[in-house]
Amino acid sequence: MGDEESKKWVLMVTAQAPTNMSVIKYWGKRDETLILPINDSISVTFDLQHLSTITTVSVSPTFLHDRLWLNGKEFSLSGDKYQRCLKEIRSCAGDVEDEKKGIKITKKDWENLHLHIASYNNFPTAAGLASSASGFACLVFALAKLMNLKEDNGKLSAIARQGSGSACRSLYGGFVKWFMGKNDDGSDSFAVQLADEKHWDDLLIVIPVVSSRQKETSSTRGMRESVETSTLIQYRAKEVVPKRIVEMEEAIKNRDFQSFARLTCAESNQFHAVCLDTSPPLFYMNDTSHRIITCVENWNHSEGSPQVAYTCDAGPNVVLFAQNRKVAALLLQRLFFHFPPHPDTDLKSYVLGDTSILQDVG
Ligand code: ADP
Ligand code: DP6
Ligand code: CO
Predict the structure, then answer these.
(1) Element (DSSP H or E) covering residue 86
(2) Using one digit for the tens of pLDDT, what is the confidence trace for 212-264?
(3) 3-state helix, strand and coil shares in percent for the chain, rounded to the nearest 5
């Protein structure tokens, strides 16, 4: 084979990763570079069908630069969050051999080989449905397969954390806790699974997609401004969240929907209170988000106990947890009545989901 011929190979891996929705919120960093949070957080990982990222990573000696295409458009990889992840992964890469294709890549070769990355989110990007979580979890997981990393999910989760904090929780299915850690080097800031995706299979997720528009203030910038200007944020991180973490773990363990709902709604509301306490204030919710929350509050009140929990991240989309399938069906009826999806209104569609785990799809 001539020299040019021997360069004509491409190795590819595709992976799919779910997003996750926090029920105890991460909002605020103590270290911007390593992405170390000011409090622990807990999330629920979604199913792959409705809210996930699919990423294909490839390597070839003919590639001249690392490049990323996000939802079909080229996207700059120059940001620190991408550079840190790529650097960490390259430093752990292993040997790869494909006898059929006559390819042999040694650990050292990865430093000089370039990557092409094509990624799609099957749900709105940068609209408060945690695309950065599934996006970075998928990127790290796919690259780890391609480059034959021997590291376990714990290490991959720590690498994904350096892309986007919430991404460290998407490496696990079911119910996940991210420990803030105490160390300055981030060595004890990682995610663990609290319960797997089968633990609470009655729980159903309903998402009214209020808006697919990209938010004006990214989560990264929003939380930086909150840390700099909000007085409520430190009280929340030190006094409120530690107690709620203990209660939420207990609620998940016991499948106690009453406590789960009370804590989830209170967390969402306090998170948005911190956003309002930021200068200038961050308005992530809109009128429709407020109306959906009021509708759920009224329903829960009229029943005398919570049927549905709501949470809203850094965007206008509300995520609803129904206690069981019967409640989910009633909830959808109510929502369709009050908020019919229509091209002229801001409500576009509904997404129904379960809890789940990420996959290597070949
Ligand atoms: P969201 O609420 O959707 O998580 P963020 O502001 O936290 O919004 O993050 C959006 C950013 O995450 C995007 O601008 C992009 O940098 C990154 N991102 C989203 N999806 C992907 C993906 N599939 N692959 C790589 N990066 C992604
Ligand atoms: C409101 O993980 O998107 O969704 O770490 O800067 O990438 P960066 O931020 P990101 O923030 C998530 C904030 C949140 C709450 C949560 O997911 O816990
Ligand atoms: Co995000």
Answers:
(1) helix 80-92
(2) 889 999 999 999 999 999 999 999 999 999 999 999 999 999 999 999 999 99
(3) 40, 25, 40
Structure tokens at 357: 């785990």
Helix (H) or strand (E) holding 144: helix 131-146
ipTM of the complex: 0.99
Please enumerate in sequence order all residues whose Cβ is within 8 A of that of 33, keeping only pairs 6 or more positions apart, or say none.
Answer: 80, 84
With b meaning 16 or more CB within 10 Å and e meaning fewer, what string describes 190-200? bbebbbebebb
Beta-ladder partners of 307: none
> What is 104-137 written as a DSSP string?
EE-GGGGGT-EEEEEEEESS-TTSSS-HHHHHHH
Helix axes 287-303, 325-338, angle to 10 degrees: 130
Q: 36: CA distance to ligand 3 center in Å?
A: 15
- pTM of the complete model beyond 0.90: yes
The ligand minimizing its distance to the Cα of 128 is: 1
Distance 351 CA to ligand 2 centre (A): 21
Residues with CB under 6 A from ligand 2: 22, 25-27, 35, 41, 130, 132, 164-166, 219-220, 313-314
